[in-house]
């Protein structure tokens, strides 16, 4: 399969049609390159708040509600594009109000036949907890697709090994991210590469990029797209299948062969995924040694 992962820049939108045109241009470009799976970043939907004007876009709470209110329309556009271009799409995540509670950070996953489901972020960053009051969402899911089993760890979630381990049956783990500084980008990237090593799978990182003075939430973003695997049999010795240019908007592409994933899991130089359980009795028996 061919994977396309985005370094996605936000725009000020003057009309809904402008958003539809932008999204279709991105999808058409990747599909035109033969991509079977497209991955957009965390909080890429925040540009929709600009449709309600500068006062709304610049206010944390009002921007959350403005974006959440448009997500049904966003879903309809993605369903149409996934069917039209015959590709899987992980849409950019958005704050979504669920019932009468606080919003969750939700990424919707679309299949070429129009079916869709979502993955919510599990663990909130300090900004999401302390400023936005974003809530942890529903459980982790494993999507069984024609491309293989696919999981999603949204940004900060990628930095937690046990969340990655819960998705150990996944052939690919998608990691949409939104990071302000270079250090944040590298935290997620290190998480992505670590989960690829531990699970002997492929991880796909998408990033929000660029400056947006109109927003308090996504005002500065650093990153690029990247596709990673274990540095082992059938993969590059660095584990890097592909990486984009830092902060340059556009797609990063990589070819992913599921048979190579199956082979490294069965007969790699190391077998991290199978040997994971050998940690458990050893970490439970840690002793203190005074020197």
Index terms:
291 residues, alpha/beta, Nitrilase/N-carbamoyl-D-aminoacid amidohydrolase, 14-stranded mixed sheet, 10 helices, globular
What does this structure look like?
It is a single chain. The chain has ten helices and 14 strands. It has helices at 16-32, 54-57, 60-69, 71-85, 126-132, 161-166, 182-199, 258-267, 272-275, 280-283, and strands spanning 2-9, 37-39, 88-90, 94-96, 104-110, 116-120, 142-145, 148-152, 172-177, 202-211, 220-221, 226-228, 240-243, 250-255. The mean pLDDT is 97. The chain has one domain (2-283): 4-Layer Sandwich (Nitrilase/N-carbamoyl-D-aminoacid amidohydrolase), CATH 3.60.110.10. The radius of gyration is 19 Å and the shape is globular. With 291 residues, the protein is of the alpha/beta class. 33% of the residues lie in helices and 24% in strands. Strands 1, 2, 3, 4, 5, 6, 7, 8, 9, 10, 11, 12, 13 and 14 form a 14-stranded mixed β-sheet that branches.
What's the pLDDT, averaged over the residues? 97
CATH topology descriptor: Nitrilase/N-carbamoyl-D-aminoacid amidohydrolase
Report the portion of residues in β strands: 15-25%
Helix content: 25-40%
Per CATH, the superfamily is: Carbon-nitrogen hydrolase
* CATH class bucket: Alpha Beta
Report the CATH architecture. Answer: 4-Layer Sandwich
Query: Count of helical segments?
Result: 10
Overall number of domains: 1
Using the CA coordinates, give the radius of gyration: 19 Å
Low-pLDDT ranges: none
Organism: Ruegeria haliotis
Protein name: Carbon-nitrogen hydrolase family protein
Keywords: Hydrolase
Domain CN hydrolase: 1-258
């Amino acid at each position: 399969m061919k994977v396309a992962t985005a370094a996605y820049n936000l725009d000020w939108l003057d009309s809904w049609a402008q958003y539809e045109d932008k999204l279709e241009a991105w999808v058409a470009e990747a599909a035109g390159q033969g991509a079977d799976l497209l991955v957009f970043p965390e909080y890429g939907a925040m540009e929709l708040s600009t449709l309600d004007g500068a006062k709304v876009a610049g206010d944390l709470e009002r921007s959350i509600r403005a974006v959440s209110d448009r997500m049904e329309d966003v879903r309809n556009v993605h369903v149409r594009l996934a069917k039209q271009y015959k590709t899987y799409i992980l849409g950019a995540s958005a704050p979504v109000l669920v019932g009468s509670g606080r919003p969750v950070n939700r990424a919707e996953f679309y299949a070429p036949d129009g079916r869709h489901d979502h993955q919510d972020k599990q663990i909130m960053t300090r900004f999401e907890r302390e400023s936005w009051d974003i809530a942890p969402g529903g459980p982790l899911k494993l999507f069984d697709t024609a491309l293989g089993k696919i999981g999603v760890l949204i940004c900060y979630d990628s930095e937690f090994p046990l969340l990655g381990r819960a998705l150990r049956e996944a052939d690919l783990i998608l990691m949409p991210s939104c990071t302000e500084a270079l250090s944040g980008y590298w935290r997620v990237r290190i998480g992505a590469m670590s989960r690829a090593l531990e699970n002997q799978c492929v991880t796909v990182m998408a990033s929000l990029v660029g400056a947006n003075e109109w927003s308090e939430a996504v005002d500065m973003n650093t990153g690029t797209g990247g596709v990673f695997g274990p540095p082992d049999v059938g993969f590059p010795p660095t584990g890097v299948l592909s990486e984009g240019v830092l902060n340059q908007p556009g797609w990063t592409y990589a070819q992913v062969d599921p048979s190579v994933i199956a082979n490294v899991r069965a007969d790699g130089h190391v077998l991290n995924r199978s040997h994971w359980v050998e940690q458990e009795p050893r970490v439970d028996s840690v002793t203190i040694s005074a020197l």
